[in-house]
């Protein structure tokens, strides 16, 4: 029997998606001498959650996503999450801009374009909510420039498909901002990984599956890998491991057996899009239009009518419609859910199931929809939609986090969660929205948790070169906000023009 190949490395990245790619891009800048190996079970990069067809691609900045600004019991609008997310997306744009300036990204239009972000609501109650949301957000400098209208003619000018054929007596309202973007995270992932491989310190292994993680006595990790094309097995000894395998991360985190892994379970939710590629329809819509979520719906299921640019093709997507499968990945196994159930999380799973009746009811309703039912849902946004212009496509598969809290008990989490070991030698990312849009902020948090001394001392100056707002608040720093947004929009070729803040002097050549 042939001896298994054993390799020493500094870093192992599991999953060739946007999270691993972003972390790898950071490590290449901060520790250019480090060796890295990326393992991906599929035959291509960004084949699961990061693929353009599998995620919203919105460039989530809380400009249009109503679930980030819930209405509180007293009727006021909670803006905290929206402020956090827009700051985080600004960090993403700064990092991408740095890479453009450094020559590591050629044409930014390969992955990002200006597409207006809009919220759209119907009926007296939701119009009142949107008006309050707009007023609340206008208190903050980061949201300045957003417009609000209840005038059908103004709205028609922004999004004609949404107004044409609509009952004139129906009360509607929208917000509009050209600060919004459309981002192809699959294309961005490929750019990052191509750069890493070309620099010579990174090896990409497609059709390779990590099937076990074992902590070694010296603190390193033994990473067991199988080549799915040949069946050959190898062992990699790594000083640091990141699990960025989307829905597959939970299983690998459980395999690591770190105490932190005992706090988590998962519940899978899939999706489908209605897609229109008819050029006559597509050219009449240039916006990402988000509505109100149904009662019980997870955040990834907030309905939206999106302009999407993927390569040379522009389409309109509507949805997503929720689906259910026991798979944790689109290309996963039907045993994924059952294999994630352990003696330490089975009680939590049962409690969450009992407490989330509205979510379960919503999923049952979604699963019972016919194609025509989906078209009727589309017509709430686009009254003149013709059935023959649309087709149904599978979207991505997500795993919502089930977290066991000692004080609050088990709960279903709808965000993203970074899990790291106490010694900082392994980290994982669980969860979904806003996900890819805040990948830079998420990976900065992971680096700070796992390498606190280096983050604070050795890397600090370099990080601030890449992300000028790091450690600062753009909301309250007018000069920095103007400088950062002006530079990122220029480098990323975005159409937004940041208004000059009051009291800030701008040089004539700026």
Automatic annotation (TrEMBL):
What is catalyzed by this enzyme? (S)-malate + a quinone = a quinol + oxaloacetate
Q: In which pathway does it act?
A: Carbohydrate metabolism; tricarboxylic acid cycle; oxaloacetate from (S)-malate (quinone route): step 1/1
InterPro entries the record matches: FAD/NAD-bd_sf, MQO
Which cofactor does this sequence's record say it needs? Answer: FAD
Keyword list (alphabetical) reads:
FAD, Flavoprotein, Oxidoreductase, Tricarboxylic acid cycle
Q: Name one GO molecular function term.
A: L-malate dehydrogenase (quinone) activity
- Identify this protein by name: Probable malate:quinone oxidoreductase
Q: Which organism is it from?
A: Niabella drilacis (strain DSM 25811 / CCM 8410 / CCUG 62505 / LMG 26954 / E90)
- What is the gene called? mqo
């Amino acid at each position: 029997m042939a001896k298994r190949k054993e390799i020493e490395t500094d870093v192992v990245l599991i999953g060739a998606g946007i999270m691993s790619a972003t972390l790898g891009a950071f490590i290449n800048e901060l520790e250019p001498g480090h060796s890295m190996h990326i393992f991906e079970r599929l035959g291509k990069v960004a084949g699961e959650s990061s693929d353009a067809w599998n995620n919203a691609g919105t460039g989530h900045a809380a400009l249009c996503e109503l679930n980030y600004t819930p209405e509180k019991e007293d009727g006021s609008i909670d803006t905290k999450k929206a402020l956090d997310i827009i700051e985080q997306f600004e960090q993403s744009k700064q990092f991408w801009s740095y890479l453009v300036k450094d020559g590591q990204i050629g044409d930014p239009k390969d992955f990002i374009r200006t597409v207006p972000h809009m919220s759209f609501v119907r009926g007296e109650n939701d119009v009142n909510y949107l008006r309050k949301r707009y007023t609340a957000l206008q208190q903050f400098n980061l949201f300045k420039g957003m417009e609000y209208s209840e005038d059908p003619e103004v709205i028609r000018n922004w999004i004609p498909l949404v107004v044409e054929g609509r009952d004139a007596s129906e009360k509607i309202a929208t917000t509009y901002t050209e600060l919004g973007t459309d981002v192809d995270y699959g294309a961005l992932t490929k750019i990052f990984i191509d750069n890493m491989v070309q620099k010579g310190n990174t090896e990409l292994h497609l059709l390779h599956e990590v099937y076990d993680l074992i902590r070694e006595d010296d603190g390193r990790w033994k990473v067991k890998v199988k080549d799915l094309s040949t069946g050959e097995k190898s062992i990699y000894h790594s000083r640091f491991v990141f699990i960025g395998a989307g829905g597959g991360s939970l299983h690998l985190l459980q395999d690591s057996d770190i105490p932190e892994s005992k706090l988590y379970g998962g519940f899978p939710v899939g999706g489908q899009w209605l897609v229109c590629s008819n050029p006559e329809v597509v050219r009449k819509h240039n916006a990402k239009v988000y509505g109100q979520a149904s009662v019980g719906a997870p955040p990834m299921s907030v309905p939206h009518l999106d302009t999407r640019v993927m390569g040379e093709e522009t389409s309109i997507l509507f949805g997503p419609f929720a689906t259910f499968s026991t798979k944790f990945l689109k290309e996963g196994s039907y045993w994924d859910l059952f294999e994630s159930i352990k003696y330490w999380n089975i009680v939590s799973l049962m409690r969450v199931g009992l407490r989330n009746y509205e979510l379960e009811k919503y999923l049952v309703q979604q699963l019972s929809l016919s194609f025509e039912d989906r078209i009727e849902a589309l017509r709430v946004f686009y009254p003149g939609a013709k059935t023959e212009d649309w087709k149904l496509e599978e979207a991505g598969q997500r795993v919502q986090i089930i977290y066991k809290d000692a004080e609050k008990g088990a709960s279903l989490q709808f965000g993203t969660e970074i899990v790291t070991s106490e010694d900082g030698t392994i980290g994982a990312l669980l969860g979904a929205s806003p996900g890819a849009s805040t990948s830079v902020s998420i990976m900065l948090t992971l680096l700070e948790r796992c390498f606190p001394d280096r983050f604070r001392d050795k890397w600090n100056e370099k990080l601030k070169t890449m992300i000028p707002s790091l450690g600062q608040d753009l909301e309250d720093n007018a000069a920095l906000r103007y400088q950062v947004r002006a530079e990122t929009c220029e480098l990323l070729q975005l159409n937004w023009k940041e208004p000059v803040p009051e009291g800030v002097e701008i040089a004539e050549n700026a």
